[in-house]
Amino acid sequence: MLPRALAFDVFGTVVDWRGSIIGELAKFGTAHGLQRDWATFADEWRNGYAPAMDRVRKGELPWTRIDALHRGILDELLQRAGIDSVSEADVDHLNRAWHRLDPWPDSVEGLTRLKRRFIITTLSNGNVSLLTNMAKHAGLPWDCVISAELFHHYKPDPQAYLGCADLLDVAPGELMLVATHPSDLRAARASGLMTAYVKRPLEFGEGHHLPAVDDGEFDLIADDFLDLAEQLNRLGS
Question: Architecture of 17-99 per CATH?
Answer without folding.
Answer: Orthogonal Bundle (1.10)
